[in-house]
Inverse folding.
């Protein structure tokens, strides 16, 4: 079923030019659908627009409380995030990969281009398995 | 359901390359491109060079872009400086061109031509370039120009990096660039430094070597807080050989040093009010000797010419935007003061007493963009400028512009511009001239009327543009070679210009651009027509770019100047995430358009030299 959803998501890209925000959400949703974890993904983000976009889709489970989530999408460092958290954290700023030791991947802008990166050791520590399409973005370490 | 899934699968595989994440990222990058936020469709016929274009073109210098502009030909003057001339225009024609870096206009008072200082500028810190033709917008403020070139710096929010780029070329030039941009708390910063040592082909004239080698130092700093303020500092220093200069037997150690610095501050208030102020300083210094000598305006002969000239330019402006139901209104005012200071001006070691000019300009302008409905935009703008000039009589000038944009359907749209503007006589025409010309204090503003239209067809793959312009100029500036001064021409001069541009996108990584133009006027003193073909390709990790620029041949005083063919090719390969390797061949056929540098000796030189450039970029 996930494969079908992926096709549907991708197909919508053929429908002419899309706004940057919509494409960012498409990328994030693609990423989330391509990650396999032990538990069902419960998503929370500090960005209202991301939460709204994920909520609109019935393919994702979103939670309004940080504590109830196991998959976090962060745009900035948040005060209540502890270093020993067992949540999977995906960040939207490359620097956060260094600041937040549990963060396993990032979508970020560098040199005028959007980039995706996943840190191999952190994926393994958190038992996260990426689909083949995400594997080219795996890096050994933060560069 | 099975059939549905099968159909989906078929479509998916048919468009397989559209589905990988890299393509999605590329689309995201395109959608977020800065030029999509800064471009103003109603401000003129727009030519945009996106960051992606500039990188693939390996456009290192502003002149790498200038040479491609339709309806213009790039030429070099007798000091080896690149200039651009409208189709058919004489080399004496002073182009009222406007150059901006972000919101700041580079205003020159010594040469009255920003390209005299910035044609060779490095553009590593620039994100994209917008060129407005066809009677550009009055709402840009400042004095109205025939063409506006806007350079926008890279957005620190999307940079977050430090990088170093070094280029070496086949003539042993070296160019070093350091760039850093990012976010610190609520502030965005950008810092850029460029140091280059540029070498060019040497020519021989009357047993003297002509060189335009130079050292260039350039910097740009910017600190800003979104919707709050911007502070920018920009500086450039060109220190080099003076090529031929005024004579035909220049000394080998003739030097020309030029510098330009400016600092500008902009404050954005919550109620759409914008306040800007800036100070610019300009210096031009030369020591010129010619063995035979050069003819002065009074027909006497001089062998030595030394000068050291400064100018200061002060600007203050205030703009307010008002958004009503169907109207977007801009009201603005600006004060501009240009001052000249001469430290040294010697002919054969004798000091000359010259007019040192000061010009104050008070400007008031407005623009009303009226959205008739979602497919029709009408824009009316007007500007009044009061000139207080210490050398010539004070005048009040006005400009007006009517723009209409109609979106016919999803594919077709057209724009029509009706412009009335003026060209104010420049400092070097009416007060402070080089010694080979006389100043004409009676020179009046030239009056320009222009009607221009552009029709566009666009779909997912194709984009085709057809543009046409009719222009008439009353009191045009011409050079009287007997009186050796600029004068207002009696009667009206007419011009017509047309172009066709087509783009075809094979996919998101590959496209071809072809453009052809032609100018129609009575006398041609430069190319009357031209062609540009650009091919942007990606093969695996390789980025490829091919460019062919054609400019037609012409004659000046029975001296035939052949048509020019400039083929440029660039290849780039990202070796690692940090290292990017680039190779570029400029004017590969060595058949680029040439400029007539000296009429007596029939000395010609190309504005684009044939050379190879190797570049390595390292991102930290």
């Amino acid at each position: 079923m996930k494969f079908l959803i992926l096709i549907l998501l991708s197909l919508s890209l053929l429908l002419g030019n899309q706004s940057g925000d919509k494409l960012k959400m498409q990328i994030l949703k693609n990423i989330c659908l391509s990650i396999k974890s032990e538990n069902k993904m419960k998503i929370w983000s500090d960005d209202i627009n991301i939460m709204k976009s994920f909520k609109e889709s019935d393919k994702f489970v979103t939670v309004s409380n940080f504590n109830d989530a196991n998959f976090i999408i962060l745009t900035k460092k948040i005060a209540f995030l502890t270093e020993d958290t067992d949540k999977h954290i995906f960040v939207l700023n490359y620097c956060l990969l260094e600041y937040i030791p549990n963060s396993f991947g990032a979508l970020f802008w560098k040199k005028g281009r959007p980039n995706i990166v996943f840190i191999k050791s952190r994926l393994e520590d958190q038992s996260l398995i990426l689909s083949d399409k995400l594997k080219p973005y795996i890096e050994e370490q933060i560069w | 359901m099975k059939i549905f899934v099968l159909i989906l699968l078929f479509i998916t595989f048919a468009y397989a390359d559209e589905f990988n994440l890299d393509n999605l990222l590329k689309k995201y990058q395109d959608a977020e491109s800065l030029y999509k936020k800064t471009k103003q469709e109603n401000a003129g016929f727009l030519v945009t060079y996106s960051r992606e274009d500039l990188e693939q073109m390996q456009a290192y210098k502003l002149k790498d872009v200038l040479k491609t502009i339709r309806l213009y030909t790039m030429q070099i003057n007798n000091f080896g400086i690149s200039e651009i001339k409208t189709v058919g225009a004489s080399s004496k024609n002073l182009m009222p061109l406007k150059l901006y870096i972000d919101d700041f206009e580079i205003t020159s008072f010594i040469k009255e031509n920003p390209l005299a200082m910035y044609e060779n500028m490095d553009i590593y810190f620039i994100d994209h370039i917008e060129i407005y033709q066809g009677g550009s917008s009055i709402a840009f403020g400042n004095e109205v120009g025939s063409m506006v070139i806007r350079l926008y710096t890279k957005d620190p929010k999307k940079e977050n990096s430090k990088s170093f780029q070094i280029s070496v070329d086949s003539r042993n030039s070296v160019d070093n660039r350091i760039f850093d941009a990012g976010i610190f708390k609520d502030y965005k910063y950008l810092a850029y430094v460029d140091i280059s040592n540029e070498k060019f082909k040497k020519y021989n004239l009357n047993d003297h070597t002509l060189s335009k080698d130079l050292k260039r130092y350039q910097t740009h700093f910017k600190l800003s807080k979104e919707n709050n303020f911007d502070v920018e500092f920009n500086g450039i220093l060109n220190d080099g050989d003076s090529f031929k200069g005024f004579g035909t037997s220049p000394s080998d150690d003739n030097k020309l040093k030029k510098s330009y610095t400016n600092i500008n501050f902009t404050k954005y208030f919550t109620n759409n009010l914008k306040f800007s102020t800036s100070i610019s300083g300009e210096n031009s210094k030369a020591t010129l000797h010619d063995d035979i000598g050069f003819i002065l305006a009074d027909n006497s002969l001089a062998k030595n010419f030394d000068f050291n000239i400064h100018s200061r330019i002060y600007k203050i402006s205030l703009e307010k935007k008002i958004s009503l139901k169907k109207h977007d209104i801009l009201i603005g005012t600006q004060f501009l003061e240009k001052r000249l200071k001469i430290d040294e001006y010697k002919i054969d070691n004798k000091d000359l007493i010259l007019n040192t000019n000061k010009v104050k300009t008070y400007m008031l302008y407005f623009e009303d963009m009226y959205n008739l409905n979602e497919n029709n935009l009408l824009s009316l703008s007007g500007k009044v400028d009061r000139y207080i000039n210490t050398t010539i009589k004070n005048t009040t000038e006005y400009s007006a512009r009517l723009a209409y944009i109609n979106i016919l359907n999803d594919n077709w749209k057209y724009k029509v511009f009706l412009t009335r503007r003026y060209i104010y006589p420049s400092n070097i025409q009416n007060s402070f001239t080089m010694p080979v010309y006389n100043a004409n204090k009676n020179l009046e503003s030239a009056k320009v009327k222009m009607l221009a239209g552009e029709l566009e067809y666009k779909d997912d793959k194709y984009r085709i543009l057809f543009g046409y312009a009719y222009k008439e100029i009353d009191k045009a500036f011409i050079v009287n070679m007997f009186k050796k001064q600029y004068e207002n021409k009696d009667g009206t001069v007419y011009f017509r210009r047309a172009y066709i541009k087509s783009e075809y996108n094979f996919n998101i990584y590959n496209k071809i651009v072809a453009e052809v133009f032609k100018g129609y006027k009575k006398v041609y003193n430069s190319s009357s027509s031209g062609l540009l073909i650009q091919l942007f390709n990606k093969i695996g990790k390789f980025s490829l770019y091919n460019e062919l620029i054609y400019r037609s041949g012409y004659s000046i005083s029975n001296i035939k100047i052949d048509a020019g063919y400039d083929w440029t090719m660039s290849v780039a390969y990202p070796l690692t995430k940090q290292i990017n390797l680039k190779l570029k061949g400029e004017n590969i056929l060595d058949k680029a358009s040439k400029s007539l540098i000296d009429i007596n000796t029939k000395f010609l030189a190309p504005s684009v030299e044939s050379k190879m450039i190797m570049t390595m970029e390292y991102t930290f």
